[in-house]
Design brief:
By secondary structure, this protein is α+β, with helices and mostly antiparallel strands. It has one domain. It has three helices and six strands. The chain has a six-stranded antiparallel beta sheet, with helices on one face. α1 crosses α3. The structure holds zinc ion. Zinc ion binds next to loops. The site of zinc ion has 7 residues, from loops.
């Protein structure tokens, strides 16, 4: 445990690439224990942020901002409940995720990134582990399309990738 050292975004990314390469050669990740309990968290948003911190193995000094995401539903078909938006920022750089329940009781995290067709910031790939994040950073195959990638209302109207 390092003390009084601010973890840089570069260090976070390097750790994720390591995890992805380890997974690719069959090394299993260290057991980091069970996920934090959302009902025990100070708020639903804070609890969702804590689960993302756990899955990405983020050090305690890494800041996570959590907000209500106005664009995406919390679960498929939800009318009122909105996804949680999580901002992972360190220094001047930031990544954004949304947390949704695609299956009951199991949080899915999607990374927000520019749509390859229209350029709008949409949920692009599913990132449920540090290795998933590393795979995405390295542009490796095997990342999974985010559940709401093709249905996101954030795409521009003339985007060719939107379904429905
Ligand atoms: Zn698009």
């Amino acid at each position: 445990m390092r003390e009084a050292t601010i973890t840089s975004m570069e260090a976070i990314e390097a750790a994720a690439r390591h995890a992805a390469l380890d997974r690719a050669v069959g090394l299993s990740a260290t057991d980091y224990g069970s996920e934090p309990s959302i009902p025990c968290a100070p708020s639903e948003h804070a609890g969702v942020g804590a689960v993302l911190r756990h899955r990405l193995h983020l050090p305690a000094d890494v800041r996570l901002g959590t907000y209500e995401d106005l664009n995406h539903p919390l679960f498929p078909g939800a009318q009122h409940f909105r996804a949680t938006r999580i901002q992972l920022s360190q220094g001047r750089r930031a990544y954004f995720f949304i947390g949704t329940y695609e299956t009951p009781g199991r949080l899915t995290f999607s990374l927000i990134a520019p749509c390859p067709d229209c350029g709008a910031p949409v949920p692009s790939v599913t990132i449920n582990s540090q290795a998933d994040f590393g795979d995405w950073l390295m542009g490796r195959e095997g990342t999974t399309e985010a559940p709401s990638f093709r249905t996101s209302p954030v795409h521009r109207r003339d985007c060719s990738l939107v379904s429905g």
